[in-house]
Design brief:
This protein is mainly alpha-helical. Helices cover 52% and strands 0% of the residues. The radius of gyration is 24 Å and the shape is elongated.
Length: 188
Amino acid sequence: MLYDDFKPIVDLVFNNWTALQLAVEHGMGAPGGEKTAQLMSVYVARYCVENVVDRDDLTELLEDLMDEEFETVCHDNSPKEVSSLLVFFLGLLKEGRHDELRSHIEAMPKCQKWLSEPIHESVPPQCHGNPDDDTTSSDDDDDNDDEEQQIQPNSEVATTSNQADGVEPMDEDDLEPGWTVVRTRRRK
C-alpha cells in the first residue's frame, strides 16, 4: 500500500522541520503537542496518498494545520519547502523510482527522530495547567498550608495578602477602551 511506504517519508521530513519541532518543544497550541504532531503526520500522509496533491494545496494545508493546531504562523516559507519535498518524494514513489528516492532521502540532513518515537505514558497529558487538572484546583478544606497558598494565586489568602501589601485593584474607569477587568470568584 502506498500509505505504508509514504508515511515514514512524511515522518522523516517532519522530523527535519524546525518550525514544527519548535512549536512542539515550546508547548504552542493545546497540551499534547507531540501527539498532535504525530497525528498531523498521519493526516498529511493520508491526504497526499488519497488525493491528487499539488505543492500549493499542500502548502496551504500545512499552514492551516500549524496555525490551528499549534497557533504558529511560519514566516520562513518552510511549509512551502516541506510541501515541495513531500510532493517530490510522493511522485518518485508513485513512479517506482525507489533508488532515486532512497538517494534523495539519504542526502537529507540527519536529525533526531523525535516524531516517530512513542509517547511515554509517564508524562501527564495535562501538563500545561489545564483548569480541569486536579493538581491545580483548590481544595474545599479550610486547612491550607503555605505551599498551597503560593501555588494558588486565585485563593482568598493570596487576594488578602495582595491587599495587605498595598496593591490595590484597578478601577474600571481608569481602563483604556477595549480592556476588560477580570475578577476572580470568591469561595463560599
